[in-house]
Design goal:
41% of the residues lie in helices and 14% in strands. The protein contains 15 helices and ten strands.
């Protein structure tokens, strides 16, 4: 049967109003990629999968939640949507709004959004506004705008975003037959970790699929949930999770506690190393998306986690193509040769 997106596949399990009018780009159904070599490199003895959410239509997991949030907004007659974003939500909101014929307004922190995300938001026709402030400042402003005007808020404060993002947990259980033992993922505004925990609990109550321990991973320079207080000037190379005051922070802490998991912080170097390991195994993700693997490696190295014969799923939330600069900035300029076979042979065979 043709695949028609997450509302079509899992709509009956989502808590959404009857006025919802499906707007889809056939999001979801992302690959769960076995990573046996990376598991060995991390010490071995366990099974590792990457759920590659970068394979969604706009290149991030946000599409799962956005299809539901926009479908609900359209169904109740909304004509415009707004969000604050570190980039991926902006691109996703812009795409689904375009699909639905709505106006999209996206507010981003100046100079802190990766090129592929900004380009996406522009390409899909959103009105993009930069503010001289952080994501947290932008979020507080869009919340006020949505309260004053008939403009639907599509950040993950919108409950329908979480309903949609739950479907990734359903997909994992459907594919593996049960929940994994551990689920590791990056944490920014904390909507996604909240959604996964909702999804796993719902599936367990319906299908006895079991529950994972959740390892949420923040960047050390933007780790309010680890520090226990907001961070006023968050900073990290993983700009997607450069957030100092997560809107769903309480729920994230509950998910970690109830699942007998935890939320930890990793350094930018650990994140970039994990990005390289993933790419060396064929999966190129943006820096924030490597945080889950970075956190897993961190815990293994500190012997704080026992994965013997366990099954682990790492959520890679966004595609590497979103943030090409991070690679290009460090990359040696590729050699340029004349059109000369001898010179090419010499170079390939290491004689030049
Ligand atoms: N990974 C990526 C690639 C993200 O873009 C985000 C969040 C996260 C992880 C964290 O997810 O916020 O649900 O905890 N990006 C948001 C945005 C903030 O505006 O695109 P979260």
């Amino acid at each position: 049967m043709a695949y028609n997106g997450v509302l079509s596949r899992y709509g009956s399990l989502l808590n959404i109003p009857s006025h919802t009018k499906p707007i889809t780009l056939l999001e979801g159904n992302t690959p769960l990629i076995p990573m046996p070599r990376l598991a060995e490199e991390l010490g071995g003895g366990f099974e590792l999968f990457v759920k590659f959410e970068g394979m969604n239509p706009t290149g991030s997991f946000k599409d799962r939640g956005m299809t539901v949030a926009i479908s609900e907004a359209v169904g109740r007659g909304a004509k415009a949507v707004i969000c604050a974003s570190t980039g991926n939500t902006a691109a996703s909101a812009a795409a689904y709004a375009a699909r639905a014929g709505l106006r999209a307004i996206v507010i981003i922190p100046q100079g802190k959004v990766a090129a592929g995300k900004l380009a996406g938001a522009v390409a899909y026709g959103a009105q993009v506004i930069q503010i001289e402030g952080s994501f947290d400042d932008a979020l507080s402003m869009v919340v006020q705008i949505s309260q004053r005007h008939p403009i639907a808020l599509v950040n993950s404060l919108n409950p329908y975003r979480l309903e949609g993002q739950k479907t990734a947990a359903f997909e994992i259980c459907d594919e593996l037959g049960t929940a994994p033992d551990w689920l590791c993922l990056p944490v920014g505004n904390a909507g996604n970790i909240t959604s996964y925990w909702m999804g796993f609990r719902q599936y367990d109550s319906l299908k006895q699929s079991g529950l994972p321990h959740i390892l949420g991973v923040q960047a050390a320079g933007a780790a309010p949930l680890v520090l226990g207080h907001p961070v006023s000037n968050p900073e990290t190379v993983a700009t997607a999770i450069r957030i100092g005051k997560p809107a769903r922070g309480e729920e994230a802490l509950q998910a970690a506690e109830q699942s007998q998991g935890r939320i930890i912080a990793v350094t930018d170097d650990e994140i970039l190393n994990a990005q390289r390991w993933l790419a060396a195994n064929g999966v190129w993700v943006e820096p924030a998306s490597a945080a889950g693997i970075a956190g897993l490696a961190h815990e293994l190295r500190a012997r704080k986690i026992d994965l013997k014969r366990k099954r682990v799923v790492a959520i890679c939330t966004g595609h590497g193509l979103k943030d090409p600069e991070i690679i290009v900035r460090r990359m040696p300029i590729p050699k340029v040769l004349p059109v000369n076979l001898t010179a090419l042979e010499a170079l390939i065979l290491g004689e030049a």
